């Protein structure tokens, strides 16, 4: 007998998330009282922000607009109408939430990396992570010097900040396309995820070096070895954690999926928060990717090749962290600091080098086995910017204010303004382009029933594929 479910049950996963969030708030209220989690507290306003962001994402999904755009815009709106402003200890709390969200999206990305594709495309991954980035950084440095009178060091700092791409935007979009079967045969998702991760690690590491030179926060020796230390720490911790997760717990353990999820997840949370605490924040994301990849290498041989339940757990958890991640990015956008002159020239500084990067990325893939449409898709995948810009954008301003230097503070304020512009413009445009052009530019090798942006896409499974 077939039981007909009520209409609301089709969205029971979203209802469950709202209910869980309410229960967490109610428990916190019972413990800490009205002062800390009451209706006038920052915690309560954060909860409202996340719920409204999730609802906005669902509504935009109904008209085939990526939900993350709605979540981002709700964060921008609530910050600029005065509903919420995160300062003091709450800024540290939301920073931790952003780190948790980043770990959550990096783990399924690492678990989904294809070892064979990495071996075959290692040279192209390195080229995409270095050559186009260098072109964009140089372009931004020169334009910032000519239009905004930035010193060369400050122009380079801005270039490294803007050249980083957003894993929080790119990876979920690639997951959507991958699950629909687009680009799977050529390993497009592995190529873009690996190259974008390496891209961000390089930008974050060199950004730290430039910051140290400008503000003289480190010795010359430490500035020289800052980047290599980040790579060494990330690879070493990730490889060690991945090796442990390969063998602990044993594959025949009753609760192996739950234990592997907790061990890998908490280990990577330690990597992200710990590396940030000791001043090497780039090592954390790298460690997460390496740990997930190393662990999955053996797990696949144990039968988790096409259906990894640990990855499924993190994908489910992303439903909770997605509105948190994008709403908090939106909250960083403060219209009150925008200055007309800086915004005008900032648009030029942002867009022209980005266009050069897209063209360079397309040229970099010419010696690959990708067809023209796939090369165009790969080149356009580097547009979204959000996570790194929201995290590192205010760093220089904080240091400048501590030194009480008005000249340095002026440059740092311009860096923040242009970082805000990059988030507002590139995040929604990049997400829309990836999701709308992906099905047109990439070959589909398998088709499945898959829920995309809030509606069901019905497709036929290829008879030779085990989906």
From TrEMBL:
<feature type="transmembrane region" description="Helical">
    <location>
        <begin position="411"/>
        <end position="434"/>
    </location>
</feature>
<feature type="transmembrane region" description="Helical">
    <location>
        <begin position="187"/>
        <end position="214"/>
    </location>
</feature>
<dbReference type="InterPro" id="IPR038770">
    <property type="entry name" value="Na+/solute_symporter_sf"/>
</dbReference>
<comment type="similarity">
    <text>Belongs to the monovalent cation:proton antiporter 1 (CPA1) transporter (TC 2.A.36) family.</text>
</comment>
<dbReference type="InterPro" id="IPR051843">
    <property type="entry name" value="CPA1_transporter"/>
</dbReference>
<feature type="transmembrane region" description="Helical">
    <location>
        <begin position="255"/>
        <end position="274"/>
    </location>
</feature>
<dbReference type="Pfam" id="PF00999">
    <property type="entry name" value="Na_H_Exchanger"/>
</dbReference>
<protein>
    <recommendedName>
        <fullName>Cation/H+ exchanger transmembrane domain-containing protein</fullName>
    </recommendedName>
</protein>
<feature type="transmembrane region" description="Helical">
    <location>
        <begin position="152"/>
        <end position="175"/>
    </location>
</feature>
<feature type="transmembrane region" description="Helical">
    <location>
        <begin position="376"/>
        <end position="399"/>
    </location>
</feature>
<dbReference type="GO" id="GO:0016020">
    <property type="term" value="C:membrane"/>
</dbReference>
<dbReference type="GO" id="GO:1902600">
    <property type="term" value="P:proton transmembrane transport"/>
</dbReference>
<feature type="transmembrane region" description="Helical">
    <location>
        <begin position="43"/>
        <end position="63"/>
    </location>
</feature>
<feature type="transmembrane region" description="Helical">
    <location>
        <begin position="125"/>
        <end position="146"/>
    </location>
</feature>
<feature type="transmembrane region" description="Helical">
    <location>
        <begin position="280"/>
        <end position="299"/>
    </location>
</feature>
<feature type="transmembrane region" description="Helical">
    <location>
        <begin position="320"/>
        <end position="337"/>
    </location>
</feature>
<dbReference type="InterPro" id="IPR006153">
    <property type="entry name" value="Cation/H_exchanger_TM"/>
</dbReference>
<feature type="transmembrane region" description="Helical">
    <location>
        <begin position="96"/>
        <end position="113"/>
    </location>
</feature>
<keyword id="KW-0812">Transmembrane</keyword>
<feature type="domain" description="Cation/H+ exchanger transmembrane">
    <location>
        <begin position="51"/>
        <end position="423"/>
    </location>
</feature>
<dbReference type="GO" id="GO:0015297">
    <property type="term" value="F:antiporter activity"/>
</dbReference>
<feature type="transmembrane region" description="Helical">
    <location>
        <begin position="343"/>
        <end position="364"/>
    </location>
</feature>
<feature type="transmembrane region" description="Helical">
    <location>
        <begin position="220"/>
        <end position="243"/>
    </location>
</feature>
<keyword id="KW-1133">Transmembrane helix</keyword>
<keyword id="KW-0472">Membrane</keyword>
């Amino acid at each position: 007998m077939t039981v007909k479910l009520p209409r609301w049950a089709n969205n029971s996963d979203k209802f469950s998330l709202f209910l869980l969030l309410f229960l967490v708030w109610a428990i916190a209220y019972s413990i800490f009282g009205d002062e800390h989690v009451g209706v006038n507290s920052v915690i309560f306003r954060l909860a409202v922000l996340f719920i409204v962001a999730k609802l906005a994402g669902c509504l935009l999904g109904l008209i085939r607009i990526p939900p993350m755009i709605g979540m981002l815009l709700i964060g921008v709106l609530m910050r600029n109408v005065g509903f919420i402003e995160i300062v003091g200890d709450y800024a540290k709390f939301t920073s931790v939430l952003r780190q948790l969200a980043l770990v959550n999206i990096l783990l399924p990305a690492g678990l989904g990396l294809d070892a064979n594709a990495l071996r075959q495309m290692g040279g192209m991954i390195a080229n995409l992570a270095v050559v186009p980035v260098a072109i964009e950084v140089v372009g931004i440095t020169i334009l910032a010097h000519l239009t905004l009178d930035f010193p060369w060091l400050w122009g380079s700092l801005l270039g490294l900040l803007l050249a980083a791409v957003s894993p929080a935007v790119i990876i979920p979009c690639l997951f959507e396309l991958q699950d629909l079967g687009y680009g799977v045969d050529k390993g497009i998702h592995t190529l873009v995820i690996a190259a974008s991760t390496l891209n961000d690690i390089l930008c974050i590491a060199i950004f730290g070096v430039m910051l140290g030179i400008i503000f003289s926060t480190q010795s010359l020796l430490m500035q020289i070895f800052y980047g290599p230390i980040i790579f060494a720490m990330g690879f070493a911790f990730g490889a060690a954690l991945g090796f442990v997760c390969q063998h602990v717990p044993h594959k025949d353990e009753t609760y192996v999926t739950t234990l592997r999820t907790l061990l890998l997840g908490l280990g990577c949370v330690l990597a992200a928060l710990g590396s940030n605490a000791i001043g090497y924040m780039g090592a954390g994301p790298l460690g997460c990717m390496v740990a997930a990849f190393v662990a999955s290498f053996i797990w696949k041989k144990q039968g988790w090749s096409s259906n990894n339940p640990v990855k499924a757990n993190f994908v489910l958890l992303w439903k909770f962290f997605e509105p948190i991640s994008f709403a908090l990015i939106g909250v960083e956008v403060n219209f009150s600091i925008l200055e007309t002159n800086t915004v005008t020239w900032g648009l030029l500084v942002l867009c022209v080098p980005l266009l050069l990067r897209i063209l360079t990325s397309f040229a970099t893939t010419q010696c690959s086995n990708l067809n023209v449409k796939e090369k165009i898709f790969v080149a356009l995948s580097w547009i979204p910017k959000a996570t790194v810009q929201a995290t590192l954008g205010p760093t220089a301003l904080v240091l400048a204010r501590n030194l009480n230097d008005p000249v340095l503070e002026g440059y740092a304020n311009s860096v923040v303004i242009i970082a805000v512009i990059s988030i507002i413009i590139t995040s929604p445009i990049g997400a829309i382009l990836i999701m709308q052009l992906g099905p047109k530019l990439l070959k589909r090798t398998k088709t499945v029933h898959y829920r995309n942006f809030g509606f069901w896409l019905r497709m036929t499974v290829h008879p030779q594929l085990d989906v």
